Amino acid sequence: MRLDHIDRARAGLRAAPRDLTPSRLLGAAGVATLIAGLAAWALGAGFAALWLFGVAAVCAGLALPLPYAVVSPLFIGVVGWLVDMLPFVILLGWAAVVLRWAAGVVRDRRLPRGGRWIWLPVGLAAWTVFGIISVPSNELKHFVLLFGLQGLASGVLLIVVDQLGSFQDRQKVITSLIVFV
User: Fold this and answer.
1) Secondary structure of the chain in the HEC alphabet?
2) What's the CA gap between 7 and 77, in Å, rounded?
3) In the predicted model, is pLDDT for residue 17 greater than 60?
4) Residue 70 CB-density burial (10 A; 0-12 exposed, 13-18 middle, 19+ buried)
5) What is the mean pLDDT of residues 106-115?
6) CB-based contacts of 64: which residues, under 8 Å, 6+ apart?
């Protein structure tokens, strides 16, 4: 643990400025786009506000630590409700979180942890794919949307099983969900 700031304070020196890490920059971009989205909504530019809220959800999903990032789309989705697109904003945030986690798994060249829990999303995806047998051709767009939603739900489930193994991480997610509700 670095205590340089304490030594500098004792010597009467100013503390060094904090580094601009990508996480901090993404967090600042998320706050800026959230404020810009609220301003656009207040000015009646709902379409611009929708996309600004979506960018804020993506920034939050990429900037926050993973236990908080899993829950952050719910909080950002509240402002998506202002433009009647809460599900879209939430899904953009969760897509960013799932892609962030998947990139880490690929980068580490490993399979997700979780033992038999891995088979639950695989089974759900297979069950959804078998649904194409009963979908008429004019409803194929809706089926693709359903399959995408299933992919996101499966990804979030795999994140929880893979990354939230410690009690502290699970406690962070549960506390965040309680605050949201």
Assistant:
1) CCCHHHHHHHCCCCCCCCCCCHHHHHHHHHHHHHHHHHHHHHCCCHHHHHHHHHHHHHHHHHHCCHHHHHHHHHHHHHHHHHHCCHHHHHHHHHHHHHHHHHHHHHHHCCCCCCHHHHHHHHHHHHHHHHHHHHCCHHHHHHHHHHHHHHHHHHHHHHHHHHHCCCHHHHHHHHHHHHHHC
2) 43
3) no
4) buried
5) 89
6) 23, 27, 72
Residue 66's pLDDT is what? 93
- Give yes or no for a contact between 124 and 154, defined as CB atoms under 8 angstroms apart: yes
pLDDT digits (tens, 9 = 90+) for 44-63: 999 999 999 999 999 999 99
Within 13 Å, how many C-alpha atoms sit on residue 159's CB side? 27
Token pair recorded at residue 36 = 């810009």
Average pLDDT of the chain to the nearest whole number: 86
**Does position 74 have pLDDT exceeding 70, yes or no?**
yes
- Identity of the residue numbered 71: V
pLDDT grade for 19, boundaries at 50, 70 and 90: low
